Inverse folding.
């Protein structure tokens, strides 16, 4: 099932996600639907709050042949080396701006089988882990862009917010 992706301005994007207490059929179905939704939207990652689900889950597919289904992630380490690269987001369509992030991340999570995974990542995967983790903390990439970049997109963000809050 394809979920509706919530757009900038939707309150679900500004609510810190709740931990998963049990990996059951409902959670597994949500993860499958999230993968389907992410692929349909040509995304690299998708977090549960982006589809209005207040749970600490996200999925990532960076094209390396592995679809990661991430439950209750914790960032264990972030490198001190920072890089700025353009980012976009399915919940903030049409905006791509440079975001400063650690080039290396070490993350711990449960996979869909309940197995603990500790993974270290660089490049696109590392950036995707950090971006999706931020969604669980109610942080959007546009919160991390420079003040100048924020001013450049402020009208577009206002329009997105206006659209998303229409009844």
């Amino acid at each position: 099932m394809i979920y509706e992706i919530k757009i900038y301005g939707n309150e679900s994007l500004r609510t810190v996600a709740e931990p998963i207490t049990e990996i059951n059929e409902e959670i597994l179905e949500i993860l499958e639907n999230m993968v389907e939704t992410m692929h349909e939207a040509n995304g690299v990652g998708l977090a549960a709050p982006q589809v209005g689900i207040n749970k600490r889950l996200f999925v990532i597919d960076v094209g390396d042949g592995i679809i990661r289904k991430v439950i209750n992630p914790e960032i264990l380490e972030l490198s001190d080396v920072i890089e700025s690269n353009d980012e976009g987001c399915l919940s903030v369509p049409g905006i791509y701006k440079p975001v400063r992030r650690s080039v290396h991340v070490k993350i711990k999570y449960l996979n869909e089988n309940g197995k603990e995974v500790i993974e270290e990542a660089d490049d696109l995967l590392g950036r995707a882990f950090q971006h999706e983790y931020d969604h669980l903390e109610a942080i959007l990439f546009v919160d991390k862009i420079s003040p100048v970049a924020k001013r450049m997109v402020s009208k577009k963000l206002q329009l997105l917010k206006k659209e998303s809050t229409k009844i």
Observations:
- Residues 47 and 58 are 4 Å apart (CA to CA).
- The chain has a mean pLDDT of 96.
- The longest strand covers residues 68-78.
